[in-house]
Amino acid sequence: MKSGILRALSQTEGYVSGQELCEKFHVSRTAIWKVINQLKEEGYEIESVPRKGYRILARPDKITAEEILSRMDTQWAGKNISYFECIDSTNTEASRQAENGAISGTLVVAEEQGKGKGRRGRSWMTKPGSAIAMSLIVRPDIAPDRASMVTLVMGLAVAKACRECYSIEAKIKWPNDIVVNGRKISGTLTEMSSEIDYIKYLVIGTGINTHVEHFPEELSKTAASLHRIIGRVPDRAELISCCMKWFEVYYDKFVETQDFSLLKNDYNGMLAGVGGAVRVLEPGNEYTGISRGIDERGELLVERQDGELKSVYAGEVSVRGVYGYV
Hints:
By secondary structure, this protein is an alpha+beta fold. It contains 9 helices and 14 strands.
Protein backbone atom coordinates (compact mmCIF):
# COMPACT_ATOMS: atom_id res chain seq x y z
CA MET A 1 0.00 0.00 0.00
CA LYS A 2 2.89 2.36 0.72
CA SER A 3 4.10 2.27 -2.89
CA GLY A 4 0.52 2.78 -4.09
CA ILE A 5 0.08 5.86 -1.90
CA LEU A 6 3.43 7.20 -3.13
CA ARG A 7 2.30 6.62 -6.71
CA ALA A 8 -1.01 8.41 -6.10
CA LEU A 9 0.76 11.41 -4.55
CA SER A 10 3.42 11.45 -7.28
CA GLN A 11 0.95 11.40 -10.15
CA THR A 12 -1.15 14.30 -8.83
CA GLU A 13 0.04 17.90 -9.03
CA GLY A 14 -2.35 19.10 -6.37
CA TYR A 15 -3.72 17.47 -3.24
CA VAL A 16 -5.01 13.93 -2.89
CA SER A 17 -7.80 13.70 -0.35
CA GLY A 18 -7.65 11.22 2.47
CA GLN A 19 -11.09 9.93 1.50
CA GLU A 20 -9.92 9.27 -2.05
CA LEU A 21 -6.98 7.25 -0.72
CA CYS A 22 -9.25 5.33 1.64
CA GLU A 23 -11.56 4.36 -1.21
CA LYS A 24 -8.69 3.49 -3.51
CA PHE A 25 -6.98 1.14 -1.07
CA HIS A 26 -10.05 0.02 0.92
CA VAL A 27 -8.59 1.03 4.28
CA SER A 28 -9.45 3.44 7.08
CA ARG A 29 -8.29 7.05 7.39
CA THR A 30 -6.17 5.92 10.33
CA ALA A 31 -4.33 3.44 8.11
CA ILE A 32 -3.65 6.18 5.55
CA TRP A 33 -2.46 8.53 8.29
CA LYS A 34 -0.04 5.89 9.59
CA VAL A 35 1.49 5.39 6.13
CA ILE A 36 1.83 9.16 5.62
CA ASN A 37 3.67 9.41 8.96
CA GLN A 38 5.95 6.50 7.98
CA LEU A 39 6.82 8.34 4.77
CA LYS A 40 7.57 11.54 6.69
CA GLU A 41 9.87 9.60 9.02
CA GLU A 42 11.69 8.25 5.95
CA GLY A 43 12.43 11.76 4.71
CA TYR A 44 9.46 12.59 2.49
CA GLU A 45 8.15 16.14 2.95
CA ILE A 46 4.38 15.81 2.77
CA GLU A 47 1.97 18.67 3.32
CA SER A 48 -1.35 17.86 5.04
CA VAL A 49 -4.19 20.37 4.70
CA PRO A 50 -7.65 19.83 6.25
CA ARG A 51 -10.43 19.33 3.67
CA LYS A 52 -7.81 19.22 0.90
CA GLY A 53 -5.65 16.23 1.66
CA TYR A 54 -1.99 15.44 1.07
CA ARG A 55 0.68 16.40 -1.42
CA ILE A 56 4.41 15.69 -1.74
CA LEU A 57 6.64 18.76 -1.55
CA ALA A 58 10.00 16.97 -1.60
CA ARG A 59 11.29 13.42 -1.59
CA PRO A 60 14.59 11.91 -0.43
CA ASP A 61 17.04 10.19 -2.77
CA LYS A 62 15.84 6.69 -2.01
CA ILE A 63 15.83 3.51 -4.08
CA THR A 64 13.64 1.43 -1.81
CA ALA A 65 11.18 -0.98 -3.37
CA GLU A 66 8.28 1.33 -2.50
CA GLU A 67 9.92 4.38 -4.07
CA ILE A 68 10.86 2.59 -7.29
CA LEU A 69 7.48 0.88 -7.61
CA SER A 70 5.73 4.25 -7.23
CA ARG A 71 7.45 5.29 -10.47
CA MET A 72 7.27 1.96 -12.36
CA ASP A 73 5.35 1.84 -15.63
CA THR A 74 5.87 -1.73 -16.83
CA GLN A 75 3.87 -4.91 -17.26
CA TRP A 76 6.44 -7.32 -15.79
CA ALA A 77 9.98 -5.91 -15.67
CA GLY A 78 10.84 -4.68 -12.18
CA LYS A 79 7.37 -5.27 -10.76
CA ASN A 80 8.81 -7.52 -8.04
CA ILE A 81 11.65 -5.74 -6.21
CA SER A 82 14.05 -6.85 -3.48
CA TYR A 83 15.84 -3.92 -1.86
CA PHE A 84 18.92 -4.18 0.36
CA GLU A 85 20.72 -1.49 2.32
CA CYS A 86 23.98 -3.45 2.03
CA ILE A 87 24.77 -6.61 0.09
CA ASP A 88 27.71 -8.57 -1.27
CA SER A 89 26.55 -8.44 -4.90
CA THR A 90 23.18 -7.83 -6.53
CA ASN A 91 24.07 -10.45 -9.16
CA THR A 92 24.88 -13.02 -6.49
CA GLU A 93 21.65 -12.29 -4.63
CA ALA A 94 19.61 -12.39 -7.84
CA SER A 95 21.13 -15.79 -8.65
CA ARG A 96 20.17 -17.03 -5.18
CA GLN A 97 16.61 -15.85 -5.70
CA ALA A 98 16.44 -17.30 -9.20
CA GLU A 99 17.56 -20.69 -7.88
CA ASN A 100 14.72 -20.45 -5.34
CA GLY A 101 12.14 -19.80 -8.05
CA ALA A 102 11.99 -16.00 -8.35
CA ILE A 103 9.80 -14.96 -11.26
CA SER A 104 11.07 -13.41 -14.47
CA GLY A 105 11.26 -9.64 -14.04
CA THR A 106 12.40 -9.76 -10.41
CA LEU A 107 14.74 -6.84 -9.70
CA VAL A 108 17.37 -6.79 -6.96
CA VAL A 109 18.54 -3.31 -5.92
CA ALA A 110 21.13 -2.32 -3.31
CA GLU A 111 22.22 0.96 -1.76
CA GLU A 112 25.67 -0.49 -1.12
CA GLN A 113 27.49 -3.56 -2.40
CA GLY A 114 30.92 -4.76 -1.34
CA LYS A 115 31.65 -7.47 -3.90
CA GLY A 116 29.92 -6.33 -7.05
CA LYS A 117 30.89 -8.09 -10.26
CA GLY A 118 32.37 -6.63 -13.43
CA ARG A 119 33.46 -8.24 -16.67
CA ARG A 120 36.36 -10.70 -16.63
CA GLY A 121 36.48 -10.99 -12.87
CA ARG A 122 36.76 -7.27 -12.17
CA SER A 123 35.09 -5.91 -9.04
CA TRP A 124 32.39 -3.24 -9.04
CA MET A 125 32.13 -1.58 -5.64
CA THR A 126 29.16 0.60 -4.77
CA LYS A 127 29.36 3.07 -1.89
CA PRO A 128 26.11 4.18 -0.22
CA GLY A 129 24.21 6.73 -2.30
CA SER A 130 26.87 6.88 -5.02
CA ALA A 131 25.35 4.81 -7.79
CA ILE A 132 22.69 2.44 -9.01
CA ALA A 133 23.44 -1.25 -8.45
CA MET A 134 20.70 -3.49 -9.79
CA SER A 135 20.27 -6.99 -11.19
CA LEU A 136 17.29 -8.24 -13.18
CA ILE A 137 16.21 -11.88 -13.47
CA VAL A 138 14.76 -13.05 -16.78
CA ARG A 139 13.84 -16.53 -18.00
CA PRO A 140 13.87 -16.29 -21.80
CA ASP A 141 12.73 -19.13 -24.03
CA ILE A 142 15.74 -18.81 -26.33
CA ALA A 143 18.79 -20.91 -27.19
CA PRO A 144 21.77 -20.46 -24.83
CA ASP A 145 23.98 -19.25 -27.68
CA ARG A 146 21.76 -16.17 -27.99
CA ALA A 147 21.97 -15.16 -24.34
CA SER A 148 24.79 -12.65 -24.89
CA MET A 149 22.41 -10.47 -26.91
CA VAL A 150 20.33 -9.80 -23.79
CA THR A 151 23.29 -7.83 -22.43
CA LEU A 152 23.04 -5.55 -25.46
CA VAL A 153 19.31 -5.16 -24.84
CA MET A 154 20.03 -3.76 -21.37
CA GLY A 155 22.73 -1.47 -22.74
CA LEU A 156 20.24 -0.11 -25.26
CA ALA A 157 17.65 0.41 -22.51
CA VAL A 158 20.07 2.27 -20.21
CA ALA A 159 21.23 4.57 -23.00
CA LYS A 160 17.63 5.33 -23.98
CA ALA A 161 16.63 5.97 -20.35
CA CYS A 162 19.54 8.38 -19.79
CA ARG A 163 18.56 10.28 -22.91
CA GLU A 164 14.90 10.44 -21.89
CA CYS A 165 15.49 11.44 -18.25
CA TYR A 166 18.33 13.92 -18.74
CA SER A 167 18.38 14.97 -22.43
CA ILE A 168 22.02 13.90 -22.80
CA GLU A 169 23.72 12.20 -25.73
CA ALA A 170 24.30 8.89 -24.00
CA LYS A 171 25.95 6.45 -26.38
CA ILE A 172 26.71 2.73 -26.32
CA LYS A 173 30.30 1.56 -26.42
CA TRP A 174 29.83 -1.90 -27.86
CA PRO A 175 28.67 -4.17 -26.48
CA ASN A 176 26.97 -2.56 -23.46
CA ASP A 177 28.98 0.19 -21.74
CA ILE A 178 27.22 3.56 -21.71
CA VAL A 179 29.36 6.63 -22.35
CA VAL A 180 28.77 10.37 -22.33
CA ASN A 181 31.39 12.64 -23.91
CA GLY A 182 33.64 9.60 -24.25
CA ARG A 183 33.53 8.63 -20.56
CA LYS A 184 31.84 5.55 -19.12
CA ILE A 185 28.87 6.01 -16.79
CA SER A 186 27.44 2.48 -16.87
CA GLY A 187 28.30 -1.15 -17.48
CA THR A 188 26.40 -4.44 -17.55
CA LEU A 189 27.37 -8.02 -16.76
CA THR A 190 25.04 -10.91 -17.60
CA GLU A 191 25.39 -14.32 -15.97
CA MET A 192 23.59 -17.46 -17.15
CA SER A 193 22.40 -20.70 -15.62
CA SER A 194 21.60 -23.20 -18.34
CA GLU A 195 21.53 -26.75 -19.57
CA ILE A 196 22.89 -27.75 -22.98
CA ASP A 197 19.72 -26.82 -24.85
CA TYR A 198 17.85 -24.35 -22.66
CA ILE A 199 18.33 -21.39 -20.33
CA LYS A 200 17.18 -21.75 -16.71
CA TYR A 201 17.63 -18.03 -16.07
CA LEU A 202 19.76 -14.98 -16.81
CA VAL A 203 20.86 -12.40 -14.27
CA ILE A 204 21.55 -9.01 -15.84
CA GLY A 205 23.60 -6.83 -13.50
CA THR A 206 23.89 -3.12 -14.24
CA GLY A 207 25.80 -0.37 -12.47
CA ILE A 208 25.26 3.33 -13.20
CA ASN A 209 27.50 6.06 -11.78
CA THR A 210 25.11 8.69 -10.46
CA HIS A 211 26.84 10.45 -7.53
CA VAL A 212 30.40 9.07 -7.62
CA GLU A 213 32.80 11.79 -6.45
CA HIS A 214 36.16 10.07 -6.90
CA PHE A 215 37.29 7.27 -9.18
CA PRO A 216 40.36 5.05 -8.79
CA GLU A 217 43.38 6.41 -10.66
CA GLU A 218 43.12 3.75 -13.37
CA LEU A 219 39.54 4.90 -14.14
CA SER A 220 39.90 8.65 -13.68
CA LYS A 221 40.37 9.34 -17.40
CA THR A 222 37.67 7.00 -18.70
CA ALA A 223 34.84 7.15 -16.13
CA ALA A 224 32.29 9.83 -15.30
CA SER A 225 29.31 10.37 -13.02
CA LEU A 226 25.87 11.61 -14.05
CA HIS A 227 25.57 14.37 -11.47
CA ARG A 228 28.56 16.22 -12.93
CA ILE A 229 27.26 15.80 -16.47
CA ILE A 230 23.74 17.08 -15.84
CA GLY A 231 24.66 19.59 -13.13
CA ARG A 232 22.22 18.29 -10.52
CA VAL A 233 21.54 15.24 -8.38
CA PRO A 234 20.01 12.47 -10.50
CA ASP A 235 16.78 10.88 -9.31
CA ARG A 236 17.90 7.26 -9.05
CA ALA A 237 14.41 5.78 -8.62
CA GLU A 238 13.23 7.62 -11.72
CA LEU A 239 16.20 6.34 -13.73
CA ILE A 240 15.75 2.75 -12.56
CA SER A 241 12.07 2.75 -13.49
CA CYS A 242 12.86 4.29 -16.88
CA CYS A 243 15.53 1.63 -17.53
CA MET A 244 12.97 -1.08 -16.74
CA LYS A 245 10.40 0.53 -19.03
CA TRP A 246 12.73 0.54 -22.01
CA PHE A 247 14.22 -2.85 -21.21
CA GLU A 248 10.73 -4.35 -21.33
CA VAL A 249 10.03 -2.70 -24.69
CA TYR A 250 13.30 -3.84 -26.26
CA TYR A 251 13.40 -7.28 -24.60
CA ASP A 252 9.92 -8.18 -25.86
CA LYS A 253 11.01 -7.30 -29.39
CA PHE A 254 14.19 -9.33 -28.98
CA VAL A 255 12.33 -12.41 -27.73
CA GLU A 256 9.87 -12.10 -30.62
CA THR A 257 12.63 -12.61 -33.21
CA GLN A 258 15.38 -14.02 -30.94
CA ASP A 259 17.85 -11.68 -32.61
CA PHE A 260 18.49 -7.97 -33.12
CA SER A 261 16.62 -7.58 -36.41
CA LEU A 262 14.00 -5.31 -34.78
CA LEU A 263 16.53 -3.47 -32.61
CA LYS A 264 19.53 -3.06 -34.89
CA ASN A 265 18.60 0.39 -36.16
CA ASP A 266 17.88 1.73 -32.66
CA TYR A 267 21.14 0.29 -31.34
CA ASN A 268 23.28 1.54 -34.22
CA GLY A 269 21.68 4.97 -33.85
CA MET A 270 23.16 5.20 -30.34
CA LEU A 271 26.38 3.25 -30.97
CA ALA A 272 29.56 5.24 -30.34
CA GLY A 273 32.25 5.29 -32.99
CA VAL A 274 30.24 4.06 -35.99
CA GLY A 275 32.29 4.87 -39.08
CA GLY A 276 35.38 5.51 -36.96
CA ALA A 277 38.58 3.57 -36.45
CA VAL A 278 38.61 0.88 -33.73
CA ARG A 279 41.21 -1.50 -32.38
CA VAL A 280 40.03 -5.10 -31.95
CA LEU A 281 41.86 -6.76 -29.07
CA GLU A 282 41.46 -10.43 -29.96
CA PRO A 283 43.86 -12.82 -28.19
CA GLY A 284 46.71 -13.51 -30.57
CA ASN A 285 45.17 -11.43 -33.35
CA GLU A 286 44.87 -7.69 -32.76
CA TYR A 287 43.91 -5.51 -35.69
CA THR A 288 42.56 -2.07 -36.64
CA GLY A 289 39.47 -1.44 -38.72
CA ILE A 290 36.39 0.71 -39.22
CA SER A 291 33.27 0.13 -37.13
CA ARG A 292 30.23 -0.55 -39.33
CA GLY A 293 27.67 -1.11 -36.55
CA ILE A 294 26.13 -4.35 -35.36
CA ASP A 295 24.38 -7.12 -37.28
CA GLU A 296 21.24 -9.12 -36.42
CA ARG A 297 23.18 -11.23 -33.89
CA GLY A 298 24.50 -8.22 -32.02
CA GLU A 299 28.02 -8.78 -33.33
CA LEU A 300 30.11 -5.76 -34.24
CA LEU A 301 30.98 -5.48 -37.92
CA VAL A 302 34.54 -4.25 -38.43
CA GLU A 303 35.91 -3.51 -41.88
CA ARG A 304 39.58 -4.45 -41.94
CA GLN A 305 42.21 -2.55 -43.86
CA ASP A 306 42.10 -5.18 -46.63
CA GLY A 307 38.34 -4.61 -47.06
CA GLU A 308 37.23 -7.80 -45.32
CA LEU A 309 34.17 -7.36 -43.09
CA LYS A 310 34.68 -9.22 -39.80
CA SER A 311 31.99 -10.07 -37.25
CA VAL A 312 33.26 -9.58 -33.71
CA TYR A 313 31.62 -11.62 -30.94
CA ALA A 314 31.26 -9.81 -27.62
CA GLY A 315 32.33 -12.72 -25.44
CA GLU A 316 35.69 -13.17 -27.14
CA VAL A 317 37.31 -9.77 -27.58
CA SER A 318 37.48 -6.15 -26.50
CA VAL A 319 37.15 -3.18 -28.80
CA ARG A 320 38.68 0.25 -28.15
CA GLY A 321 38.89 3.48 -30.05
CA VAL A 322 42.22 3.93 -31.70
CA TYR A 323 42.86 7.21 -29.86
CA GLY A 324 41.04 6.52 -26.60
CA TYR A 325 38.47 4.50 -24.68
CA VAL A 326 35.71 5.00 -27.27
